Amino acid sequence: MLRLRMPSISYQVNNSVFTTFLSRSLLVGPLYIPYLESHTPTVRTLIICHKDFIFSKGMREYERKKSKSCIEKRKFHLQDGAHAWLNENRAGAVQSLPSIEIEGKPDAIRMRTYRELTLNCIASQTGDSIERRLPPGPWGLPIIGNLLSIDPQTPHKSLAQLAGKYGPVCGLHMGSIYTVLLSDPKLIRQLFSKNVFCGRAPLYMTHGIMKGFGIIAAEGNLWKVQRKFVLNCLKNFGMTKFASSKRDLLEKRILLSINEALMKLEMRSNEKSGLDPHQTLQHCIGNLMNFFVFGKIYQEEDEVWKWLQFLQEEGVKHIGISGPLNFLPFLRFLPRYYNIMKLLIDGQNKTHEVYRKILADHRKFPNEMNSFLAAYDKEMQKRLANEEPLDSFTEIQCVYLLADIFGAGVDTTLTTLSWFLLFMVAFPKEQAKLQEEINKIVGENEPTLENRRDLTRLEATIMEVQRLRSVVPIGIPHGTTEDTQIQNFTIPKNSMIVPLQWAIHLNPSYWPDPCMFDPNRFLTENGGLKKPDAFIPFQFGKRMCVGDELARMILFLFTARILHRFSISAPIGNTINLEGDCGITLVPKRQNLIFKRRH
Q1: Please, which residues have CB within 8 angstroms of residue 86's CB and are 6 or more apart in sequence?
Q2: How far from the centroid of its chain's Cα atoms is residue 54's Cα?
Q3: 3-state secondary structure string across 475-537
Q4: Is rRNA-binding a UniProt keyword of this protein (predicted)?
Q5: Are strands 99-102 and 580-582 parallel, antiparallel or unpaired?
Q6: Of 228, 287, 504, 537, which cross-links 466 as Cys (Cβ 3.0–4.6 Å)?
Q7: What's the Rg (C-alpha) of the chain?
Q8: Which residues are annotated as a binding site?
Q9: Where are the domains of the chain?
Q10: Of 81, 79, 73, which Cα lies nearest the Cα of 41?
Q11: How do 99-102 and 105-106 pair as beta strands?
Q12: 3-state secondary structure string, 398-440?
């Protein structure tokens, strides 16, 4: 068991050097100074803030003169000065750094070289900023960076606080990954349209598990080809803003799922205690996505289907963007994280087995039904028949892609709908206004997509729910594919770029009284719909959600038909909890609701 005893030190580490050293030293034991001297050519400067250990006057003066003379050249290498200073002050410096205990035995490995490397790797925030003009941000610790500053229960709020303190472009270290927080929607729109920001951050829980396949973790040409394929499939299914025969078929399929949900909610809702609608909605929305993705549906009691739903929930819960496993992969050897990883990897393997069986069944009994699986297999078979290279269209890519489409389609839609229902109960006057609008526009008929342009208050209310409870509050991180610039700041290659939806959606500069639930923000004086630039539920740019229009269709039809059929309330004595649990998505607490038929 490894335990670091840290004195009260505040410093920044040259992560590439330090991480390389640490990983090797823990595997092969202590390293030696000659090795270190030959493998640390990029050491820049040394600043340690400690009550018993400060720079000598001579080193400070050297730093000041050197930084002043080199700032225009954008280079700030203080290796010689740092080493000279260390030679004079090595004893005190070494003793001020952390000691290490292994398996409870102090100094089982004294790791003097660890301490000395730490000294040689420490780079000051000031020095780093002078060399590369990094964005402003908090100091971090070696190895873990700023992870201790982030509340694991509410990471979206912690990061929003950092953005509020340091500005719309904020830099920090999440473990060894340099991270830039963006909270300016105009800047995000500008940056995410550029290819250099179209990569994915090297997160262990995504790259380590997804291995760069699918569409979420894919990069480069694979991502471009697969994204184009998915968009073409969605358009072929009828995902368009304008009426067409294909869109009519798509709407009919959505309405079948909605009608099943309405029937089950009415049957299962107790007049006094109500019911938790999650399972019913998860089944109906999940089966809708099963139809689009695989061309099949499950019975609610099917054991395979129950297991797939459980796995998806657990995956969303544990693959948190800010989770420590993403940035400190060695934690997977600890019992708690080992069990999580085992659950996810075993679950992934079993899920892929299910998907491969569905693919094999489709090949045995092909049908003309539109589905992603059928379209993908058709493309693979066409390339094989023409003896063309499969390139991006392989069976392993197929199962990862199907998992991505299914997971993203179910989770975000289900979560948004769940938040909507809770807000309707928490704000019954707004619920009544929506029902009045539906009565006026639709009457005794059932709402359809044709009514969407007229039910503007409903659309505005959905948007206000998406603003107040950003389903992906930290956004889906991008990665830089090369060194680049954001404003006047230099951003290194492989940095993680985080669009902070939560911070933007609750920023008083963009939204007056941002914590107040007010659908009128999305309505003009004449009652028309407006979309402020700071509203980014599906992100911006080349990697924005490919199924945004399909999600809007599903949300509109579900909310319109539920409010047309039911009045929703909480059981007597129950208070609606509008706090959520943050994994990849911000999921509401499970709560019982009463669905009382209106007509």
Answers
A1: 46, 93, 119, 120
A2: 40
A3: CCCEECCCCEEECCEEECCCCEEEECHHHHHCCCCCCCCCCCCCHHHHECCCCCECCCCCCCC
A4: no
A5: unpaired
A6: 537
A7: 27
A8: 545
A9: 1-132, 220-471+514-597
A10: 79
A11: antiparallel
A12: HHHHHHHHHHHHHHHHHHHHHHHHHHHHHCHHHHHHHHHHHHH
CA 384 to chain centre: 36
Pick the CATH number of 220-471+514-597 from 3.30.420.40, 1.10.630.10, 3.40.50.1110, 3.30.70.1130: 1.10.630.10
Residues 6+ apart with CB under 8 A from 432: none
Sign of CA dihedral 410, 416, 421, 422: positive
Contacts made by residues 298-305, CB under 8 angstroms, sequence distance 24+: 304/354
Per residue in 356-393, pLDDT (tens digit) is: 999 999 999 887 678 999 999 999 999 988 888 878 89
Angle at 472 between CA 471 and CA 475, to 5 degrees: 155
Q: Do you know the residue count of the chain?
A: 599
The encoded tokens of residue 517 equal 């639930």
580-582 and 586-588 strand pairing: antiparallel
What predicted TM-score, i.e. pTM, was given to this entire model? 0.80
* Residue type at 290 in one-letter notation: N
pLDDT digits (tens, 9 = 90+) for 14-33: 444 333 333 333 332 332 22
- Binding-site sequence positions for heme: 545
Distance CA 509, CA 519 (A): 18
HSE, side-chain direction, 13 A CA sphere, residue 422: 25
